[in-house]
Write a structure and sequence with these properties.
2 copies of one chain form a homodimer. Chain A has helices at residues 6-15, 22-33, 42-51, 58-70, 113-125, 142-146, and strands at 74-77, 85-88, 97-101, 107-110, 129-140. The first copy, chain A, has 151 residues and is α+β, with helices and mostly antiparallel strands. The complex binds manganese (II) ion (2 copies) and zinc ion (2 copies). The first copy, chain A, binds a DNA duplex (30 and 30 nucleotides) through residues 14, 17-24, 41-43, 56-60, 62-63, 66, 81-84.
Chain lengths: 151, 151
DNA sequence: GAACTTTTAGATATTATTTGCAATAAGATG
DNA sequence: CATCTTATTGCAAATAATATCTAAAAGTTC
């Protein structure tokens, strides 16, 4: 897991016969500049880019979110119900995990290097090339424990 | 995280004014008897029950998979692309995590109690009531590293 | 810059999941 | 046990996230 510059991303794309495009660079830059703790969905990213005056079509966004996740540049998160969210994939000092309330989707990020190390070790032991390692904790937050909401 | 008997599930449903039904008991039994390492999707569960002569409608299955996940009886996994999979949620000696190849979806289960403990501790520290704790490792398996597949 | 290949935008298709509703049945109450 | 209330079911229809198709545009190579 490494942090990518546009140049590094371009190099890695070229290794596989692929191309760097303005859209890919825009997406990379956007994720690198978005506030810490933000997890964008495809739709949200599309809206954000539209507002910022550099629109990219939704299908291109979908294609590249998947591509960049599979390259290890982004991490794909299934936090809330029904749609995937993405954030930049960063190495150790910034790497983190997620604790999510299954009722209200309130999410807490937390760091735990020993968990990351355990994940990296497991991948290595099995000969897998690590892309992302995320501890996902599903739970009920204090507020929702008090409420009488359906499940 | 506890293993549920039908009676325990019934008791917990009643606490919230809900009911135990034959369908819910069938789903619970099915997950408790399915082979270790099997992760069923809603559709697959529906087919399996049809074959076994106790069919349950797909919408009921969807409703109950969600309910039982939010009760902590099942765990909801996003392993492959495009659909959720479920397995019974078991405590420590059987509890495990998943290492997944993002290209071919080959999945390895592994145990790591210290990761589970770290997750439980984090939930507790934040006042969250723990339902499930899963380390998800996205990686590329040895076979796929050798192939020239797209991404 | 010509030839070749990948990528894009936009429209359309796909499909997992949810929802509305009438019928059914769980569980409570007397 | 008979009755009553209301949660739950099955089926059909709706929804929404994501994938795919195609022609046009833009990187790459020579
Ligand atoms: Mn995060
Ligand atoms: Mn498993
Ligand atoms: Zn909550
Ligand atoms: Zn693989």
């Amino acid at each position: 897991m490494v942090s990518y510059t546009p140049a590094a991303m371009k190099a890695e794309l070229h290794e596989r016969g692929w191309r760097m495009t303005p859209q890919r660079e825009t997406i990379l830059n956007t994720f690198q500049n978005v506030a810490k703790g933000e997890h964008l969905s495809a739709e949200e990213l599309c809206e954000l880019l539209k507002e910022e005056g550099e629109p990219i079509s939704l299908s291109t966004i979908y294609r590249n979110l998947k591509l960049m996740s599979r390259m290890g540049i982004l991490r794909e998160l299934e936090l809330a119900e029904g749609q995937k969210r993405y954030e930049i994939n960063q190495p150790s000092p910034h790497h983190h995990h997620h604790l999510i309330c299954v009722r209200c989707n309130k999410t807490i990020e937390f760091k735990n290097d020993s968990v990351l190390k355990a994940g990296a070790k497991m991948a290595d032991k099995s000969g897998y090339h690590l892309l992302d390692c995320q501890l996902l904790i599903h739970a009920v937050c204090p507020a929702c424990q008090r409420s009488i909401m359906p499940v």
